[in-house]
Each structure stands twice: as structure tokens, then as C-alpha cells.
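Journal club prep — side note

Before the paper discussion, L.F. wants everyone to see what a predicted structure for a comparable chain looks like in C-alpha cell form. Sequence:
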Amino acid sequence: MISLKSNIEQVELTPLTVKVASFNLFNYLEPPLAYYDFENIYSGEQWAKKQHWLNEFLTEHQPDIIGFQEVFSAQALAEQARSAGLSHFAVVDEPSVVDDFICRDPVVAIASKFAFEEVVSIAVDKPYAEALGLASNFNYSRKPLRVTVVLPDIGHCDIYVVHFKSKRPSMDELPPPTTAVALSANYGELLGRNVLGQWASSIQRGSEAALLFHSMMQRRVKTQNAMILMGDFNDELNSQPLSFLTAKELRFEKNGLGELASYPLTDAYQLYCQNVSAANDTATSDEEVISSQRQATHYYGGQGNVLDYILLSQDFNPAFHTSTAEVRHYHTEDRHLINPQFDRDSHSTDHAPIVCTICSRR
């Protein structure tokens, strides 16, 4: 008697793995154009070294989605990204050009292995800006962009790329000094104006973050899409201008807390630390892990700060009951900042690119 056996094989489903990165390119500008000043033009060799450094990063880390800041030459970046397998590229603004070759006001961009269903330039909601007491002509210092992709196992995901206003004092809007003494010799006047300029930058940065966050919440209410916010925030996430980006409660409002739970954003590094702690069953608090081990993404005057972030919606938080993914790994590429080698790093970047690995949960 011959027994027949089924030839049907059970196929084990492999969880989706997506690498998301944010990279401040630091004056990515193809010669013979100049950045900010007519003397700032890369030679052919310097430009090749800058592109080679980016190629090495893309080859080593192989991100599936990467947001860029400080982009001057979008076409050159698009071609470089496509050669690395990132076939979809988007930019929603262009830099200013003075005297035909001096470029200012770099823009943000995004490259992806996933197709874009929608590409949007985020505009300032003028009524809300005016309600905050901002000038009628208030705008983002760099236009944020949003793309919508479909991630297998996760679904529609809105990805935002930003480059918030820097801490550099904004002096342009200040009135001229009232003292008759030459400004260059009046240190009291200089100090006072510097404080005003720093506060003006904080107002700009905080207002940008608040208005963008409000736009993101409106979009979330409408679509319930997962959200990723990444870029150069130019400040610590716990600073006063940015701290509300990860707000998780409504002051004086206790009703509807269950519904509120799906809206907050969480730092991807914190989610990674939570995942590690859960896997190791450790008692170390997330705050202790974050403060003791996190690498700086930028150095100024010898002081390291974390300025570059990837924030994720609750869809990527295993503690949330309907989450579909989690952060399995987080990397800060800082070798060129803490142990630079001229031949390798002379035309890299002044920021540390960050990469987080997201896996779907089955």
C-alpha cells in the first residue's frame, strides 16, 4: 500500500525589518557653486571625498529610509541615493542663490526604498501662528516635508523630515543699537543683543516645533497613520522649546486618557532602551540607560550634545496595546567626531548620523 503525503510546505513569515536614518550632510553642494561665501567652493577632490563618505555610510548601514538636512545640490544627492538602491527621492524646496553661484538656505530631503504615495511641503498654519503672537510673515526656517509610504505589516506611515532653527543668535530682526558708542567696543550692548538674539532663535525653533506637532496631530486624527519624525532638531529634546514634542498628558484634563494614548511621540532611542531592558529583564530605568550611554551627535566647544533624533508614534511602542512594530537596534555613527582621520573624514559632516532598526511584531 502506497501512502500519499502532502507536498504543501508551510512558509514561515519573516517579520519586516526597516532601517530608518537621519543625516545632516553639512553643506552638500556640488562645485562650482559656493556655500554662504564665494571662497567656499569644494575642489573636485574634496567633493569626491564628501560623496565617498556618504557612499561608505550608505553601503555599511544600508538604510531603507533616510532623511537628509543641509542639502544644496538635490539632483546630485538623488543620483547618489539611487546608486545606493534608494530609488525614491523627494525634496520640496530649493536653496537661495546669490550672484548666480553663492548658495544659502539649504533644504531637507528624503530617499527611500519604499514608494511615496504622497509628498507634501508642510506650511505654517497662519491662523494658529498669529494666535501665538507670531508675525504675519512667520515661516519655517527650513520647510519640513512629509512623505507617506506603505510599510508591509505596519501599513501607511507618514514620515516627516525637519531641520529646526539653530541656536545661532538671530540678530537680523533686532533694532539698531541705541547707544552712540561703537557697537564693536560696547560689550554690554553686545551681551544684551546676544541674549535677545538667542531668545529670538529659541522662539523660532519652539514655534516651528509646536506648529509642526499640531499639524502632525491633525493628520493623525484624520488618518491614524503611523508617524516618524526625524531630523536635526538643533536642541536637546528635553529643552524647553522642544520638550512638548514627547508630551504624553493633557494638563488639568483627565477625561479621554485612553484615547490620548495613541497620539504621543517617543524617542526611538528610548524605545530601544526599553526593548533591551525588557529582553534582559533588568531593573535599570530607561532614564539611567539613556543618560549614561547615549552618544552625542554634535560637538561645540568640546561639549557634546544630542541634536539629531528619530521620534516614533505609538505604533512602534510594544507597551502600546495596538502597536505593530518595535525598535530592535539604534546606532550613532560618531567615529569621525571622536576619532577623526583626515584622509577618511576631512569632508564628512559635523553631525553624527543616526540609524534605528524597526521590526514588525508578529
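L.F.'s comment for the group: The mean pLDDT is 90. Keep this in mind when we get to the figures.
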